[in-house]
Write a structure and sequence with these properties.
The protein has four helices and five strands. By secondary structure, it is α/β, with parallel strands linked by helices. It has one domain: 2-Layer Sandwich (Transcription Regulator spoIIAA). The strands form two sheets. A three-stranded parallel sheet has the order 1-3-5. A two-stranded parallel ribbon has the order 2-4. Helix 1 runs parallel beside helix 2.
């Protein structure tokens, strides 16, 4: 039977993920590192390359720590922009491999 990590932390992304938001986004991920994290993208209206880089780095960090990182409830604007940049929600998420 598979058991999933209990998500001790959540992070709601702001509407604008631009250069100005990148350092705050990085800090938000750093303070939550080491625990499973659910990221809510419902409010996102714009995504810039710098914040996308932060999210890709977070995905790599969570994978290295073998902690789940799930991007959920993404707005159409968020999905459309990351698609244009060649990224998917699955690329930004990390799920543990469970062995039954």
């Amino acid at each position: 039977m598979e058991t999933h990590e209990i998500f001790a932390a959540g992070l709601a992304l702001p509407p604008v993920l631009d250069l100005i938001a990148a350092s705050s986004l990085l800090e938000a991920f750093l303070t939550r590192r080491g625990q499973a994290l659910s990221v809510d993208g419902a409010a996102v209206e714009r995504v810039g390359g710098q914040c996308l880089q932060v999210m890709l780095a977070a995905r790599a960090a969570w994978a290295a720590d073998d902690q789940e990182l799930l991007l959920e409830n993404c707005s159409e604007d968020f999905l459309g922009t990351i698609d244009l940049l060649g990224v998917t929600v699955e690329t930004l998420s990390y799920r543990k491999e469970f062995i039954a």
